[in-house]
Amino acid sequence: MALISYETVCSTAIGALTRAGVPLAHARLQGDLLIEAELADRPSHGLLRLPRIIERIENGVINPETDGARTWRRSFLDVDGRMGLGPVVADSALAEMSEHARVNGIAIAAIRNNNHLGMLGWYARRIASRGQVLIALTTSEALVHPWSGRTAMLGTNPIAIGVPTAGAPFVVDMATSLVSMGQIHDYAIQGRPIPEGWALDERGNPTTDAGAAKAGSIAPFGGAKGYALGLAFEVLVTFLADCAVGRDVVGTLDSDQPCNKGDVMIVVDPGERPQIARRITDYLDAVRASGDAAHPVSVPGDRAGEARRQRLVEGIELPDRLWQQLEEMAAGGNNGTEKVRKAARRH
Predict the structure, then answer these.
(1) First CA to last CA across the chain, in angstroms?
(2) Residue 107 is inside which H or E element, if any?
(3) CA 90/CA 110 separation, integer angstroms
C-alpha cells in the first residue's frame, strides 16, 4: 500500500481527468467525490473507479463537457443528463433545486441518461450543510437477488438522507443490498475472500470468492424487508425518471455501454430552524451517550468523520498498483492509456 498526501492525491486525480478531456471545474467535482470516498474509508466508491471513468470517456459513453438539460414543471425538475459525468449533472441539478426549494419549500428531480453518481452521502452532506434536507435515490445494474431467489434481478439501489444539525450534518448513506458491488470489487482487487452470506456465484451457490461473486449476485440486506425496500426504490425511480429497469440497466460497471439507470433527488427547505437543529444535535449526543465503555454507541457518519480527519493529516492509503495507474493517467501518453484500459477491464 502507498500512503499519499491528500494534496498529491487531489492534484493527480484532477490531472488524470483533465488529461482525458474533462474541463477543470468538472474534473474538480468528479475528483472531489472520489477522494471524499477514500477519506471516509469507502474505497469501493473511491479512486478505483477512475480508470473506468476515463475509459468510458475514451469510448464515447461519457460526455465530460455537459452538465445536462433541465426542464421545470412547477416543483418537479426533469433532467436529461446527456451522458455527462454523474456528479456534474447531479450537482448542477441540485444547485437549481436548492434555490427553488428556498422559495417554494420543496424541489424534486428525476434524472435519466446520467452516469454513475458515486457516493450519495457526498450530495447529502453538501445540501444539508446549506440548511436543507436531501433524500437521494439511485438504481444500478441488476446485482441483487430477490429474497429466496438465486439470480440478480434488481439493483443495489442505495438511499442517502442528509439533515442539518447544529454541528456537522446527519448523513445516512446505504445500499439496499447487504454490501455494494464496489465492495466486492475492492475485495477482488486485494485478493481477499468475502465474508460468508454476502453473495452467490453465477450458478446461485453461496461463495466467498470475490471474483465469483462479481459474476453472481449480492444478497439483499435485512432479508425479505431489505429486498422489499430495494424493489420499491427500483420501481419508484424507474417510474419517475423514465429509465431502464432491472436486468436492462447497464453502464455503471462496464466501459462501453451508455448508462441508462435513473436518479431521484428531493430537496426540502422548511426555513430557518436553529432550535430544532440544536434539538437534533442534543438527541444524537444522547444516543451516543446511551452506550458505555464495553458497548460504545455511534451514529451514522461518526466513523467516516474520524477516518476523514485522520487521513487529511496522515495521508490516503492506496494499493500500490492503483496509485501507479493514477500517476500514469495524470502523466498521459499511450503507455498510460493502455494500462488504464487494462485496469478498467480488471475492475
Answers:
(1) 17
(2) strand 106-112
(3) 10
CB of 171 within 8 A of CB of 128? yes
Residue 339 has pLDDT above 50, yes or no: no
Say how far apart CA 159 and CA 147 lie, in whole Å.
Answer: 19
Query: CA 192, CA 186: separation in Å to the nearest integer?
Result: 9
Please compute the mean of the pLDDT values over residues 189-197 and round it to a whole number.
91
The span from the CA of 251 to the CA of 261, in Å, is 8
Residue 135 DSSP SS3: strand
CB 155 within 8 A of CB 175: no
Q: List the grid coordinates of 76.
A: 418537479
- pLDDT over 70 at 336, yes or no: no
**Residue 296, exposed/middle/buried by CB under 10 A (0-12, 13-18, 19+)?**
exposed
Indicate the pairing of strand 2-4 with strand 316-318. antiparallel
**DSSP-derived 3-state class of residue 51:** helix
